[in-house]
C-alpha cells in the first residue's frame, strides 16, 4: 500500500466556511486524520445551509468537509472542553477559522493550546488576519474579492457599477496557500521539534493577485480603468458568442460505471474565449478560420492596428464563432496553436469536458443522506503518493464514540456519562 505524505498526522478541525475546510479536505485526501469538532447547538456555517435546515444534508458542507471524521462535542461544558484538550495532546495540528474572540473565549487560542501541546502547529485562517483595526470584522468569501480590488479590475468599462463573480476566489486560493504553509510548518517541526502559528489572511492572499496594478500605481501614478475581457497586449482577446448547444450526451458514465443523469436543458448562452498575443499567432488564427478576405485588411495587419480596431475585429470574429459549437471552435483553433477555450458551465464540465473525464477529476461520492453525486476531485497528482479516494462529509457526531475509544481509550461507560451530561453527541 502506498504511504501517504500526511500519514500519521492528526488535525483537529475548528474550521468554518470554505477556505480552511478546503485545506483540510486536501489534507485528508493525502492521508491526514482530520477530525471535525462540531456541535448541534452552534453548527458550522455551511451546515446551516442544509436542505430543510438539516445540518447533515448541506450541499456546500458535503463538498467542503469531505475526508474527515466528526466528533460531536459541546465546548461550553467543562467535560466537553476537557475532551478537546485531551485530543489536542495527541494531535499535531489545530486549525481554526472563527473570529479571534471565539477561540480565546474557549481558551483554545494559540497561546493556550501551546501550553497543553508545546510542539503544536496552529493554523489561524481569517478574512482580515490577526491584529490590526479590522481584526474583528466578519468576512464572507464573495465580498472579500471586492475588498481586494479584484472586482474593480474584472469589471466592464461601460458598467454602471462594479460587477464581479459570486465565486469565492479568495477562499479557494487561500486554501491552497494554507496547505503549502502547513506542509512547510510540518517539515520545520520534523527538523527542529518546534511547532508554530500560521496566521493567514484571505484578504492578503487575494490582494496578492493584482500585483501589476500595485506596480502601475507606485511606478506610473496611474489607475487603469477596467477593460472587461480585453487586454492591452493582445487582440483579439475576449469571449465570443457561439452556436447554442442543443444536444448533450444523456449522462455522465463515470469511473464506477454509474450513469449520473442530468436534466437536458438546451442553452443559447455559449461562448469561446480567444487570445492572440502577436503577429505570428495572428497568422495561425487566420489559417484556422480559413483565411477569409477580411483578415488581409490593413487595419488588422499588426498587433497595434488590431488593438486600434478591436470593435470591428470582434464583430468579424463573432460572425465565425456564431456558426460553431463552442467545443468545435476551441478544438479548431487549438489545432492551429491558437489559445482558445470554451467558457464552460458546470453542466459542460460534467457532460462534455473530455479532459476532466480523462484525468478523473470529477469524482463520485455516495453520501448517507444526500445520495450519490459528483464532486470536484483533487487537482494535485503525485505519482508515488497519490490522493486517497474521496470520502463523504461526516454526519454531525458520526464518529464520536470511535474517536474517544481509539484516541482517548475511553470505555462505553465513560462515553455514556459524557452523553448524559450532554458534553458529547
Describe the protein:
It is a single chain. Helix content is 38%, strand content 15%. β2, α2 and β3 form a beta-alpha-beta unit. The strands form 4 sheets. The protein has a 6-stranded parallel β-sheet. Strands 7-10-11 form a 3-stranded antiparallel β-sheet, with helices on one face. It has a two-stranded antiparallel sheet with strand order 8-9. It has 2 domains: 10-208 and 365-420, Rossmann fold (3-Layer(aba) Sandwich), CATH 3.40.50.10540; 237-358, formyl-coa transferase, domain 3 (2-Layer Sandwich), CATH 3.30.1540.10. The model is unreliable at 250-263 (pLDDT under 50). It has 425 residues and is an alpha/beta fold. The protein is elongated, with a radius of gyration of 26 Å. The chain has 18 helices and 13 strands.
Produce a short descriptive summary:
Helix content is 38%, strand content 15%. It is an alpha/beta fold and 425 residues long. It folds into two domains: 255 residues, 3-Layer(aba) Sandwich (Rossmann fold), CATH 3.40.50; 122 residues, formyl-coa transferase, domain 3 (2-Layer Sandwich), CATH 3.30.1540.
Percent helix, as a range, is 25-40%
Strand order of the largest sheet: 3-2-1-4-5-6
- CATH homologous superfamily of the largest domain - what is it? Crotonobetainyl-coa:carnitine coa-transferase, domain 1
CATH class category name of the largest domain: Alpha Beta
Give the CATH topology of the largest domain.
Rossmann fold
**Major sheet attributes:** 6 strands, parallel
**With helices defined by DSSP (H or I, 4 residues minimum), what is the helix count?**
18
Low-pLDDT regions? 250-263
| Total of domains | 2
CA gyration radius, whole angstroms? 26 Å
Q: What is the typical, i.e. mean, pLDDT?
A: 90
Q: Give the CATH architecture of the largest domain.
A: 3-Layer(aba) Sandwich
Strand portion: 5-15%
- The secondary structure category is alpha/beta
Annotation, overall tally of beta strands: 13
Spatial shape: elongated
Q: Kindly report how far apart the N and C termini lie.
A: 34 Å
Amino acid at each position: 500500500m502506498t504511504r501517504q505524505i500526511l500519514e500519521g498526522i492528526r488535525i483537529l478541525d475548528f474550521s468554518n466556511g470554505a477556505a480552511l475546510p478546503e485545506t483540510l479536505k486536501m489534507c485528508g485526501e493525502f492521508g491526514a486524520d482530520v477530525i471535525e469538532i462540531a456541535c448541534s447547538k452552534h453548527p458550522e456555517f455551511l451546515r446551516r445551509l442544509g436542505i430543510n435546515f438539516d445540518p447533515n444534508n448541506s450541499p456546500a458542507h458535503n463538498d467542503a468537509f469531505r475526508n474527515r471524521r466528526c466528533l460531536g462535542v459541546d465546548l461550553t461544558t467543562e467535560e466537553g472542553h476537557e475532551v478537546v484538550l485531551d485530543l489536542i495532546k495527541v494531535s499535531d495540528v489545530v486549525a481554526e477559522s472563527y473570529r479571534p474572540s471565539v477561540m480565546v473565549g474557549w481558551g483554545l487560542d494559540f497561546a493556550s493550546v501551546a501550553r497543553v501541546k508545546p510542539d503544536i502547529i496552529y493554523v489561524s485562517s481569517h478574512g482580515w488576519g490577526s491584529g490590526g483595526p479590522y481584526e474583528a470584522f466578519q468576512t464572507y468569501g464573495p465580498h472579500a474579492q471586492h475588498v481586494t480590488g479584484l472586482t474593480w479590475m474584472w469589471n466592464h468599462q461601460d458598467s454602471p457599477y462594479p460587477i464581479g463573480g459570486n465565486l469565492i476566489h479568495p477562499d479557494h486560493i487561500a486554501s491552497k496557500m494554507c496547505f503549502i504553509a502547513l506542509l512547510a510548518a510540518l517539515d520545520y517541526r520534523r527538523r527542529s521539534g518546534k511547532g508554530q502559528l500560521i496566521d493567514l489572511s484571505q484578504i492578503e492572499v487575494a490582494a496578492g493577485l493584482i500585483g501589476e496594478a500595485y506596480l502601475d500605481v507606485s511606478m506610473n501614478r496611474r489607475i487603469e480603468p477596467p477593460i472587461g475581457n480585453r487586454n492591452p497586449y493582445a487582440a483579439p482577446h475576449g469571449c465570443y458568442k457561439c452556436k447554442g448547444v442543443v444536444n448533450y450526451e444523456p449522462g455522465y458514465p463515470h469511473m464506477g460505471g454509474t450513469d449520473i443523469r442530468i436534466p437536458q436543458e438546451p442553452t443559447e448562452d455559449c461562448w469561446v474565449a480567444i487570445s492572440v498575443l502577436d503577429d505570428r499567432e495572428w497568422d495561425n488564427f487566420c489559417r484556422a478560420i480559413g483565411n477569409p478576405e477580411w483578415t488581409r485588411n490593413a487595419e488588422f495587419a499588426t498587433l497595434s492596428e488590431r488593438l486600434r480596431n478591436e470593435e470591428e475585429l470582434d464583430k468579424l470574429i463573432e460572425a465565425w464563432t456564431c456558426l460553431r459549437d463552442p467545443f468545435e471552435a476551441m478544438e479548431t483553433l487549438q489545432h492551429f496553436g491558437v489559445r482558445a477555450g470554451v467558457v464552460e458551465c458546470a453542466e459542460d464540465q460534467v457532460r462534455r469536458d473530455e479532459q476532466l473525464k480523462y484525468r478523473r477529476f470529477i469524482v463520485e461520492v455516495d453520501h448517507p443522506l444526500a445520495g450519490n453525486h459528483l464532486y470536484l476531485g483533487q487537482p494535485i497528482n503525485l505519482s508515488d503518493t497519490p490522493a486517497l479516494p474521496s470520502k463523504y462529509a461526516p454526519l454531525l457526531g458520526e464518529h464520536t464514540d470511535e474517536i474517544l475509544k481509539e484516541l482517548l481509550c475511553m470505555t462505553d461507560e465513560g462515553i455514556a456519562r459524557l452523553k448524559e451530561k450532554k458534553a458529547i453527541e
